[in-house]
Amino acid sequence: NGPTLLEVQVHRRMGHFMGDAEGYRPDEDKEAAEQRDSIERLASELRAHDVSDETIDDLRSSARERVEEAIEWAKDQPEPEPDAAYEDVFVNPPSGVTESEPSVAETGGDD
C-alpha cells in the first residue's frame, strides 16, 4: 500500500484548558459540536446495527486503556534532541530551516 491522506474535521467539545469556562463560545456552537461528535455518532451507528450498550462500553474502556498505555509509554521515552523537530518534516525546507542555520542547541532557540 502507499501513503494515505485523511482529512478529519473534529469539533472540540471542551475548552482549550481545564479551567476554560468558554464564555466566548456560543451555546449553539457547543450543541453543534456535540451533535457532530464522531465517537457518539459511531456509538449511535453501532446501536442501529444491534450492538449492545454493554459492548459499546467495553469498546470505550478498551480504547481508553490503550490511550492510557500509550501516554505512559510516551512519558517513559527519553527527551528528543531539539534539532529532531526538523527531521522528516519538510521535503524542501523553507528558507531559514536549513542545515546551514545554527542549531537550536547552539542558539538556545533564540534568534
TrEMBL record:
The keyword Ribosomal protein does not apply. GO terms for molecular function: oxidoreductase activity. Residues 22-36 have a biased composition (Basic and acidic residues). Residues 1-82 form the Dehydrogenase E1 component domain. Pfam families: E1_dh (PF00676). Keywords: Oxidoreductase, Thiamine pyrophosphate. Its cofactor is thiamine diphosphate. Residues 17-36, 72-111 are annotated as: Disordered. GO terms for biological process: organic acid metabolic process; sulfur compound biosynthetic process. PANTHER family: PYRUVATE DEHYDROGENASE E1 COMPONENT SUBUNIT ALPHA (PTHR11516:SF60), PYRUVATE DEHYDROGENASE E1 COMPONENT, ALPHA SUBUNIT BACTERIAL AND ORGANELLAR (PTHR11516). This is Thiamine pyrophosphate-dependent enzyme. It comes from Natrinema soli. The lineage of its organism: Archaea, Methanobacteriati, Methanobacteriota, Stenosarchaea group, Halobacteria.
